[in-house]
Write a structure and sequence with these properties.
AdeC/adeK/oprM family multidrug efflux complex outer membrane factor; Outer membrane efflux proteins (OEP); single chain; palmitate; alpha+beta; OMP_efflux; efflux transmembrane transporter activity
């Protein structure tokens, strides 16, 4: 902060924007009696006190209002109810507690999964960045908020200057000493038109938006850990099925080879049996690779290497204690999803910025003042009539800005319109995500039931074809076809079970799951 020198009276000039400035400076330097000194100090003190009281009153009035347009939440560009139809038949009956009111610790009951989620919340880098963004935005908000208050600085300076006789008013060379100390307020803006208040409001909304962004990252992180955990469990179950199938195929191959050597089976039967064995080996290699990749993905999202003790061995139906997931009304979901709340905070911030842009068209009043002591001797700094004070309000009225203020306002208005579009898009995206998850949930149980029946029927077909082959009724080709069909049905059953459990994790995410901490 630059403070006015208490020993000098500085001549002010009008600037290019027709700056008008009024200053009152009292800087008596002549030595007077002790009584005069005390009287001057008291008079100066009360003069400064009056100025500060007036400033405090103006500060109270300043910032009480802004020129920002009144905020109105845009209408949601989505239906008032979720879609209806055959795909949503299982979601028609809604009961129970909304997902948004249930902490993740209560939603997910699998103990291993809970441990992984806890580790992820402690170590995940994306969540850490989101938390740091909150700290950064909070600091920026404090910076903007501090502009509403005057900044007070303490200064102390001294100077020694030799003036040659040609420049001296006395015609003799002389040395001039100057020393001063003081407290001052420099360029404090009285926010009569709400410019600083609008900027503070914008910073506040940006800070709140970063908090909603952190919540959104946390919800997505919990759902991603659950999804990766389930995918790993499914791939391990698929690998186990492939290994069991290989053992069965290898046994069939050995039997066929013995029959071939005995002249009972043909070379075609032997080669077909070998094909089944090699096919199972291919699947084992593929699922082994997928499992390694699943573990790598889980390590990344958790943020640290995961102990094998808390990795799943197979899919567990005991993922959540929720017997029924309640989607609620679209309006309720929209008010709970942090990504939509984040978009609305950014919209409010853009709306507040319009107020700051509008205030640029009006005068700015700034105050410069200080109190202190000055003397030509360091030892006499606090003696005699060394007390000084100054109070200089300044009014700046924009006359010609070459269209800069209009352009600034236009930018602010366009930013607001962009924020409106982004807010509406966030609502539409959320509606689509929930509708998709509900559509899958409405049909997944039927799909699972049908896939289970298909697997049972295929298993029975394989048993019958094996019996007919052993009695010489059917060829080995029929056995192999039935065996492949059974293996495919079993793999598909694992896939459908995985989709059903992933749908639970997806619903947790898209319904804004997890009560705010």
């Amino acid at each position: 902060m630059n403070l006015t020198n208490p020993l000098e009276i500085t001549q002010r000039h009008r600037d290019t924007e027709k700056t008008m400035e009024y200053g009152l400076i009292d800087s008596n330097g002549a030595a007077e009696s002790k009584n005069s000194t005390s009287k001057s100090l008291v008079t100066g003190f009360f003069s400064v006190s009056q100025c500060l009281c007036v400033s405090a009153l103006i500060m109270t009035l300043a910032g009480c209002t802004t020129m920002a347009p009144k905020y109105e939440r845009p209408a949601a560009p989505v239906p008032a109810a979720w879609p209806e139809g055959p795909a949503y038949q299982e979601t028609a009956v809604k009961s129970g507690k909304p997902v948004a009111d249930i902490p993740w610790q209560e939603f997910f009951v699998d103990e291993k999964l809970r441990k992984l989620i806890t580790l992820a919340l402690e170590n995940n880098r994306d969540l850490r960045v989101a938390a740091l963004n909150i700290e950064r935005s909070q600091a920026q908000y404090r910076i903007r908020r501090s502009d509403l208050f005057p900044k007070i600085d303490a200064t102390a300076d001294g100077s020694v200057q030799r003036i040659p006789k040609d420049l001296s008013s006395t015609g003799q060379a002389q040395t001039v000493d100057q020393y001063s100390v003081g407290l001052g307020v420099s360029s404090y803006e009285l926010d009569l038109f709400g410019r600083v208040q609008s900027l503070k409001d914008q910073a506040l909304e940006q800070f709140l938006a970063t908090e909603q962004a952190r919540r959104s990252v946390q919800i997505s992180l919990v759902a991603e850990v659950a999804s990766n955990y389930l995918t790993l469990a499914a791939d391990r179950e698929r690998l186990k099925l492939a290994q069991d199938t290989l053992a069965s195929q290898q046994s069939s191959y050995n039997l066929t080879k013995s029959r071939f050597e005995a002249g009972v089976s043909s070379a075609l039967d032997l080669n077909q049996a070998r094909t089944s064995v090699e096919s199972a080996r291919v699947d084992i290699a593929r699922f082994t690779t997928l499992i390694a990749q699943d573990v790598n993905a889980l390590n990344l999202v958790v943020g640290s290497p995961v102990s094998t003790e808390i990795l799943p061995a197979a899919l567990s139906e005991n993922l959540t204690a929720m017997k029924d997931v309640t989607p609620g009304l679209p309006s309720d979901v929209l008010l709970r999803r942090p990504d939509i709340l984040q978009a609305e905070n950014l919209l409010k911030g853009s709306n507040a910025n319009i107020g700051a842009a509008r205030a640029n068209f009006f005068p700015r009043i700034t105050l410069v003042s200080n109190v202190g002591f000055g003397s030509d001797e360091l030892t006499g700094l606090f003696k005699g009539d060394a007390f000084t004070w100054s109070f200089a309000p300044r009014i700046t009225l924009p006359i010609f800005t070459a269209g800069a203020n209009q352009a600034t306002l236009k930018v602010a208005e366009v930013d607001r319109d962009i924020a409106v579009a982004q807010y509406e898009k966030a609502i539409q995206t959320a509606f689509r995500e929930v509708a998709d998850a509900l559509a899958q949930r409405g049909t997944i149980d039927d799909q699972l039931s049908a896939q289970q029946s298909l697997t049972d029927a295929t298993s029975e077909s394989y048993r019958l074809s094996q019996a007919r082959y052993e009695k010489g009724v059917d060829s080995y080709l029929q056995v192999l076809d039935s065996q492949r069909a059974l293996y495919g049905a079993q793999q598909n059953l694992i896939g459908v079970r995985l989709v059903r459990l992933l749908n639970v994790a997806t619903l947790y995410k898209v319904l804004g799951g997890g009560a705010p901490e």
